[in-house]
Structures are given as C-alpha cells and as structure tokens.
Q: What sequence folds into this?
C-alpha cells in the first residue's frame, strides 16, 4: 500500500495521449462494416438487384411481364428479348423484374415474421423459465417434429383461395402471395427460438444481468438492454439464412405447383416452368436461378458483416 | 457528488442497546436452493442449504467483513440481504424497512439505497454497452436527471473512481481488470447509496491493483459515509479494511466481533484454524507459526452434519457437539460472539 497507490485524486490515464477526438460509436460500427470486404461486395450486389427490380419495374409494366405470344415461344436471348422468352412466349426479363419484386417481398416479410415469433418465444421461454418455458418449448418441438414440407403443402392447400386479392402500392397481389408469406414465416421460427432460448438461459444468470437487477431495472429493461443485444448474433445469422431459405422455400412450393399462382411471376415459379427445357432452353432457368443465387449469397455476406460490425469486441 | 441525487438523509435508524445505529439488521436468514428431479414432473428431492440461519447487524458507517472458505455461503448471504435472491426464511431490515416482504415496486425504490460490487469485473459489465452507458444506466432506470445532467454526472463519477472521462464511449473489453472494477464501483455509486455489498471486489485483481481498489473503497467510505458489507477470503485484507468481522462456515456464522478481537483472540476452533493459515511477514515468527490443519472436506450443504456443523472436522469436538442441536452465538466478551459448545 504505497502512498502513490493511495492517490486517487488524479484520473488514471487509460490510453496513450488524449489528443484526437474519439470516434462516435456509430462511426466505429460503420468502420468495422466497411472493413469487411465481402460485406461491402455483398451490399453492392444486393443494391444492384434491388435497383434492377425497382427501376426495371418503371421501364417494363406488369402487362409486359404477363403478355404472352405463343408464336414467339422459347426464343433465345435477342435484342428484342434480352433474356429470351418462356414456354408461352412471355418476356423473361420483364418476368424476372416482377418475379423479383415478389420473391424479395416474400423473403423479407416471411423472415420478419419468423424472426419476430422466434425471438419472442426464445426470450420469453428462456428468461421466465418454469412452466412458461415448458409450454412454449413443447409447442416449438411439436412444430419441429412435423415435416416442414408436409406442413407447407397442407397449409398451402388449406389456405389457397381463402385469402382475397390485395391492392398494395398500386400493384395487385394475389392471395397466394400472402398465404405463402404466412406459411413460410410461421414454419421457420422454431430453430431460432430454441437457439435464443439457450442463449438467454446463460445470459439470465450472468453477473451483468444481476447487476441490472441490483440497480432496480425491470424485466422489460433487462430484456431490451442486456439480453437482446447479447443474443443478436444468432438473430442476424438466422435473418440472412432465413431470407435465402424463404426465397428457396417459395421456389420449391411453387415448383410443386402450390405456391404463388401464375400469371404472377416469382423467381421460384419461373424455375418450375423451365423444368422440361433444361437442355434445349437454358435461358429459362439461368436468369431467375442466377438471381436467386446472387441474392442469397450477397445477403449472407451482408449478414456476416453486420454481425461483426455490431460486436464491439471485434477488431476494427 | 452527493448533491446531485439529493436524497433526504432524514431516515431515523433503529439503534441497538449500545446506542449504535443499525443500518442493516439480518435475523434468521435462510436461503435454500431446491434440488429437483424428473424431467416433466419435477419434484423437490432436497435442498442446498447455502445460508442456513444467519443473524447479524451492520452499523451505520462501518465495514463488516464476511469471511469463510469457498462455498460457505458468503456471496449468497450478500445477495440474499440485497434480495437478489429472495430468502427462503428470515428477515432483513434495511433503514428501518423490512425487505423480505416488500413488493417489487417498493424493492425497486429501496435499491437506490443499497448496491453491490461484484467479484468478476469481466462478467459484471455488459460487453455491448459503453462504460458511459453502464454508469448511466441506474440513472435511466430510476429516471433521475435530464440527459445533459446525466452526462456531466457520469463524467464526474468516472473521474471520482479514477478513470479518465475522456474514455466514456469505450467498451469494457478495452479496459484492464482494475479499471473495469472502477467502472463497477462507479455504477454502484451512481444512485448515491448508503449501503454497499462488496462481493469479493478484489479477489480477481492483481495484488498491486488490489491495494488501489481497496484504498479507493476506503476513501469513498470516508467521503460519502458509506457502509460496507465486505465479503472476502483474504484475511489480511479483511483485517486492514474491516471494523468488525463475521466468520462463516457451511451456511452459518460461527464467530462475529470487532476485527482486532477476532484476530487477536479467536474463540471458535474454525476461526483459529483459519487464522493459523495466514502467513506472517516475519521469517522468525513464520518459522514457529503453529498451523491448525483441518482434516477432511467441507460437508455438502445439501446434507450438513447433525448437531454442530463443524464437528466432523473440529479438532476439539466432543459428544455434546453431535448430541445437542447447533450451538447458538453467545456473547463471550463485549460485542464478540462465538457459536461453540467449548466456548462459554
């Protein structure tokens, strides 16, 4: 116990020199994201795809996408039809634009639903424990034990035609789009909720949560400020994988003919239409397939970058 | 610093027979953790009696040390006093109010007056919050001051505990263990409490840093009139910082009294053996130091021995120790209590 150690009046200098102005936390987070090359690359691609489906929608009308001319069926890419034409002579470029809008809409909204349900279930079950936990987790396990594809098909069949067509943003969405969003959203949250529950179980016992309780914080405050931010990594991973999975789910439900009903295009049901022309008309599947791959890939890169950027412990 | 929260200091505290003001009064405190079995239909098959009937008072302005080996229930006692674990039985009176029967809203208000400093400065700070936000959080929770005042106050607090407020936007992982512990202390001080449970606040720190943190705690006590319940297993440090000390063994207090009396004249055989393990910084004395080495392990708190808890390892146990129920704390000399059939 030296006298030097006893001197608490002078603030202890932490870093080297206190000269430069420290960066704000937002700036530091952004820097971490920008340093992630693949994430920047992914966001660029994703931006291009979004621009493609929005600006494209201004150039081509939905009527172009659904206009068919059987005499011009299965034409390879040309100046008039840059992406070629499909089995009943519709322009594939216009259809990828409008199909993209639907596919991205399905991906984003379905994942939003799935994340909301999964996070809520996981946090409530993990934080409160006991009987609430038991009930929620048994329900989750019941949902998990049903084969997803079967569930998708039964629900698609059951809800088909029960949801009327909706008008939104000046576009008409067939009821099947809404059904598909709901079905995908409500059948994909279980894994995430179990992951989050496990995370919350350990966070609940951590000392910083005890510290928050000791200062008199409410459960809601603790969940919002301490539990949720520390379980953000699995949520982001689930989001990025989920958007990709939702687009693919839509593709295979459509492939089985129970998805979004024609003439409304999606990338998924465009693939379905190309099934019998894989060899002789590759442009039928190449463009929508390529867009699905690019979207899924770039979303994954972006998710990776966001996860690292939000973690203050990762290297800047 | 104390002027910012402006809590009126007009609470009349109960006094003991000697006229000392009792800030905290603990009676018959028990905390049992259930042991359950079964997956779907859980039933209780036993209980870990972490704290099993503890009585003590903490007087205003003093530091009461709580010592004992690992797993004897020191930390659980500290947390049960603060109601971070709801006690199984017993009463805790703090500033004249009974805490164990208080509802959540009342307890939340009471928490402004009692705080805790944790052992592990790595686990007790949320890694995703800046130190500024960590220290600010108590103010937000209790909705004290506006944003600008809070910012100023947090900077003051950081400076007071010896941290440069310039690094207010840094995250905990960017600090060393001692600095993080200072952040934890600043958080505990933010609400201007009167009572702080220091749960082994220096055990996780380097020896050189331990002295700094202990001195900081002492300075703060003097300046802000704080009362500490200081939980530790470093007996030399306890002797240095504490006015009184309580020795725990297997969920019970076996001896309690003024620090000097307990150290110079330990009454309970467990205290004697504990103190005999403290090295003496004098080679000649150290050479001749007689150590009382206890045989065996600490019994499981789920299944403590009958009679006196300590009899299975006690060097001076006799038939009364197993036949009679657990011996009560008896005042042997003024303010110095021990719970042992051999000491009367």
A:
């Amino acid at each position: 116990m030296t006298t030097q150690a006893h001197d608490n009046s002078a603030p202890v200098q932490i870093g080297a020199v206190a000269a430069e102005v420290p960066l704000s936390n937002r700036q530091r987070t952004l820097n971490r994201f920008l340093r992630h090359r693949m994430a920047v690359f992914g966001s660029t691609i994703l931006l291009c795809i979004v621009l493609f489906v929005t600006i494209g929608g201004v150039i081509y009308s939905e009527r172009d996408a659904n206009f068919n001319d059987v005499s011009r069926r299965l034409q390879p890419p040309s100046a008039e039809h840059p992406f070629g034409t499909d089995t009943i002579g519709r322009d594939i470029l216009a259809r990828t634009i409008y199909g993209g809008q639907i596919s991205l809409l399905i991906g984003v909204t379905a994942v939003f639903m799935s994340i909301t349900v999964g996070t809520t279930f996981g946090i409530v079950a993990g934080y409160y424990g006991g009987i609430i936990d038991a009930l929620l987790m048994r329900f989750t396990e019941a949902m998990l034990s049903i084969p997803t594809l079967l569930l998708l098909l039964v629900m698609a069949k059951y809800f088909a035609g029960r949801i009327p067509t909706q008008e939104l943003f000046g576009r008409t969405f067939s009821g099947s789009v809404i059904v598909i969003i709901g079905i995908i959203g409500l059948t994909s949250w279980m894994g995430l909720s179990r992951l989050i529950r496990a995370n919350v179980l350990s966070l609940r016992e951590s000392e910083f949560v005890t510290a928050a309780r000791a200062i008199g914080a409410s459960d809601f405050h603790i969940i919002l400020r301490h539990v949720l931010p520390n379980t953000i990594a699995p949520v982001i991973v689930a989001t990025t994988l989920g958007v990709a999975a939702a687009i693919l789910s839509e593709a295979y439900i459509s492939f089985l003919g129970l998805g979004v009903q024609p003439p409304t295009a999606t990338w998924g049901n465009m693939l379905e239409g190309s099934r019998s022309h894989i060899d002789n008309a590759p442009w039928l599947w190449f463009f929508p397939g390529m867009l699905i791959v690019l979207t899924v890939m770039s979303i994954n890169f972006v998710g990776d970058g966001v996860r690292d950027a939000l973690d203050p412990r990762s290297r800047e | 610093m104390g002027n910012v929260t402006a809590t009126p200091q007009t609470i009349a505290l109960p006094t003991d027979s000697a006229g000392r003001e009792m800030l905290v009064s603990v009676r018959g405190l028990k905390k049992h953790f259930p042991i359950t079995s079964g997956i779907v239909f859980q039933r209780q098959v036993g209980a870990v009696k972490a704290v099993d009937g503890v009585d003590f008072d903490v007087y205003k302005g003093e530091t009461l040390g709580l010592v004992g080996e690992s797993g004897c229930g020191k930390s659980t006692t500290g947390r049960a006093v603060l109601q971070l674990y709801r006690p199984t039985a017993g009463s805790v009176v703090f500033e004249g109010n009974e805490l164990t029967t208080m509802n959540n809203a009342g307890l939340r208000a009471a928490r402004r007056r009692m705080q805790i400093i944790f052992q592990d400065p790595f686990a007790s700070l949320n890694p995703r919050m800046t130190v500024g936000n960590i220290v600010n959080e108590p103010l937000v929770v209790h909705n004290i001051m506006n944003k600008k005042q809070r910012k100023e106050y947090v900077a003051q607090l950081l400076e007071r505990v010896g941290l440069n407020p310039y690094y207010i936007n840094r995250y905990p992982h960017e600090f060393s263990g001692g600095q993080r512990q200072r952040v934890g202390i600043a958080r505990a001080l933010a609400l201007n409490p009167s009572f702080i449970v220091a749960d082994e606040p220096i055990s996780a720190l380097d020896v050189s840093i331990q002295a700094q943190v202990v001195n900081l705690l002492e300075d703060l006590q003097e300046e802000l009139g704080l009362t500490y319940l200081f939980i530790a297993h470093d007996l030399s440090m306890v002797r240095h910082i504490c006015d009184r000390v309580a020795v725990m063994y297997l969920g019970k207090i076996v001896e309690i009294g003024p620090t000097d009396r307990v150290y110079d004249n330990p009454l309970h055989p467990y205290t004697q053996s504990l103190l005999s393990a403290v090295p003496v910084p004098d080679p000649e004395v150290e050479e001749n130091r007689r150590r009382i080495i206890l045989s065996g392990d600490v019994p499981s708190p789920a299944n403590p021995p009958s009679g006196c808890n300590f009899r299975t390892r006690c060097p001076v146990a006799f038939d009364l120790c197993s036949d009679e129920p657990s011996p009560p704390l008896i005042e042997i000399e003024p303010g110095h209590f021990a719970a042992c059939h051999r000491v009367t």
The radius of gyration of chain A is 25 Å. Chain A touches chain B at residues 1-2, 5-6, 8, 10-15, 18, 22, 24-25, 134, 206-208, 210-218, 221, 225-226, 229-230, 311-313 (CB under 8 Å). The mean pLDDT of chain A is 81. Residues 240 and 299 of chain A are 6 Å apart (CA to CA).
